[in-house]
Here is the input.
Amino acid sequence: MTSNALTRKLDRWEHLSDDDQVTLAAISGRIEPVARHKQLIEEGDDPRIVFLLIEGWAIRYKILPDGKRQIVAILLPGDLCDIHVFILDRMDHGIAMLTAGKIVRIPKDTMLAVVDQNPAIARALWWTTLVDEAVLREWLVNVGGRNAYARVAHLLCELYVRMGNVGLVTDGRMSLPLTQADLGQALGLTPVHVNRMLSQLRGKGLVTFRAFQLRILDLDGLIAAAGFDPGYLHGKRPERTIGSWSRPRRNSTAKLPESPA
Amino acid sequence: MTSNALTRKLDRWEHLSDDDQVTLAAISGRIEPVARHKQLIEEGDDPRIVFLLIEGWAIRYKILPDGKRQIVAILLPGDLCDIHVFILDRMDHGIAMLTAGKIVRIPKDTMLAVVDQNPAIARALWWTTLVDEAVLREWLVNVGGRNAYARVAHLLCELYVRMGNVGLVTDGRMSLPLTQADLGQALGLTPVHVNRMLSQLRGKGLVTFRAFQLRILDLDGLIAAAGFDPGYLHGKRPERTIGSWSRPRRNSTAKLPESPA
DNA sequence: CGTTAAGTTGAAGGCGCTCAACCGACGTGG
DNA sequence: CCACGTCGGTTGAGCGCCTTCAACTTAACG
Here is the structure.
């Protein structure tokens, strides 16, 4: 039960030896429960601790000058809340629990020591941060380029794959502890409109979402609606092959608009 | 002239010894010119080389299934095109020159060796990637949460600061080799609307932008229009103090909308 | 049973998009 | 040297996606 979500996740990228697994288990020793909506780090803080999310969901967010909250990442069990933020002097965003859950606090020094002595772990962790960044890029594409309907569908696809990667999808069903307002804040949409888009998705028989349970009824349909291509998640050795991604190869003759001298 | 932009930039974070500077100069040995619009890496490629941008501008972008291009990052002189992407097996985005310029190709192995042997450089590089990610987050906030007017203003603020950080702003003027269409692709707006927003900014006496020259007329006004807070750029030892950022402290009683169990 | 959070639905309005025409600068070639 | 094509920018008119505002329903929980 310890940090299974993390080892399972890392192991999908780079095979971890038993020693490595033990090391990971070791730093995951002191698991502590956290309450729903607990702020783990606030913007402006000096980050000295890395959080490993064992159980529950969390979000990374920023607050706009007018008070609006923009969610910039959704953290699932097994995710690290920025491995190396401590290089920076000041958090430029906050992290908060969405649900109650369990975390491990890893002090900066421990983190550095582990990374120093276990190249395999270091590489695996490195990989996770790059994937985080890739996800961030895709989110930008999502809100920058897709309409509301596809945008919602895309987020659902992503979460479905990521949850599957840590073994938290069973039979097309998964927990999705976000309110429609939360979804809106992640997608740059109003809660009302998120609601309408979800209705549409339900109407087309693609998904249902009630009582924070998401159920995928027609994955291929959802993928098509979203224009989803899981390549950016950089998955390897998928636990279970999901859908039929024959990589919906994009129009390779796509026009690339131009620029000046 | 070599890699001054890079050393100048890195030095702002962590003081680099003469040795470090020499090392950096060494890997910057083979500078090669690149043509305007040259694709440096394409989506799907297996990244084996890191590009250091010496001169000119480049963009990181993704293509949507419908052919639309979303710019996910703007790379200025001194920027590295992802130091460690080679951990990933496959590029999830493309990088292309916007202008003609000069680059250095750094093979993966060289990169690893330098980082291995020069902790100061490693940390400085590490820092740059974290800043890149912070910028990405702010972009997401920008397109997700701001209206078109503030969005344009915000991007201009950011580029102004970043260009200033590498010494490429003189007297409130800088080169900005993006067409209005390019700006639109970075901001999730249409070219026409970017045009109108720029007109408004000009109308209010904040900036002028003609012939790819940006001129800031009223920095404080622009900052206010954008709701800009440079904290996310994690600047240290600014080359020149810019404006009067007394950190427009956000409404600390801002409401944080809630979520479920 | 009363209260609070979340979801649902309707109506109206606006921000940004679409379509389209036109201008100006620049480069090329006849 | 002018004609023309291209590229980027500018402006106008109309439309539609999404927002805003508001009322109401449903679920959870004391």
